Amino acid sequence: MRVHDLVPSPGSTKKPKRVGRGTGGKGGKTAGRGTKGQRARNTVPRGFEGGQMPLKQRVPKLKGFTNPFRVEYAGVNLDTLSELADRFDGGRVDPDALVAAGAVRKGAYVKLLGRGELTTKLDVRVHAVSKSAEAAITAAGGTVTLVPLPFHGDTKAGRPAAKGNQFTNR
């Protein structure tokens, strides 16, 4: 027995229906497409709505995307710190103290920026700091400590953990 001798057993397969081969027999003439009309003549494109503007062209197109992992900081400059220096007890500045002083909103991530000058010694705990601001604080005899953001290190690639809502502060 050779490969070219292999055939299915009799009755196991049906011959395909040959349509459109003349008016004699089943499937002749209109070949099961009915009479006349657009679908009887040829294929109709996907999404075709009879000449009406298709849905895929009617909906507005949005440019770009919004990064769900973006971190926005509330900037606080050195001149703001020097104005509020008498409000910080013991020279300790953290996000809660800045909220109490009215410099930032509650729950905001704080970044210290370098505009202005600072003469008072302050111990600052913020989420981010610019190099010029860090240099000015250390020159005044203070220290800068970075507070880690709540979702850094929870999972791979700095993404929020699966628990809870990833778009709110946990």
Choose one word for the global shape. Answer: elongated
If you average the pLDDT, what whole number results? 84
Radius of gyration: 36 Å
For the largest beta sheet, what order do the strands appear in spatially? 1-3-5
Given helix and strand content, the structural type is alpha/beta
User: What is the ordering of alpha helices and beta strands?
Assistant: HHEHEHEEEHE
Assign a percent range to the helix content.
10-25%
Secondary structure tally: strands: 6
Biggest sheet record = 3 strands, parallel
Characterization of the model:
With 170 residues, the protein is of the alpha/beta class. Helix content is 18%, strand content 13%. The protein contains 5 helices and 6 strands, in the order H-H-E-H-E-H-E-E-E-H-E. The chain has helices at 38-41, 55-58, 78-83, 95-101, 131-139; strands spanning 73-77, 92-93, 109-113, 123-126, 128-129, 143-146. The strands form 2 sheets. A 3-stranded parallel beta sheet has the order 1-3-5. A 3-stranded parallel beta sheet has the order 2-4-6. The chain is elongated. 11% of the residues are buried. The mean pLDDT is 84.
SSE blueprint and pairings:
Layout: H1 38-41, H2 55-58, E1 73-77, H3 78-83, E2 92-93, H4 95-101, E3 109-113, E4 123-126, E5 128-129, H5 131-139, E6 143-146
Parallel strand pairs: 1-3, 2-4, 3-5, 4-6
Index terms:
single chain, 170 residues, alpha/beta, three-stranded parallel sheet, 5 helices, 6 strands, 13% strand, elongated
Short note summarizing the structure:
This protein has 170 residues and is of the alpha/beta class. It has helices spanning 38-41, 55-58, 78-83, 95-101, 131-139, and strands spanning 73-77, 92-93, 109-113, 123-126, 128-129, 143-146. It starts with 37 loop residues before the first helix and ends in a 24-residue tail after the last strand.
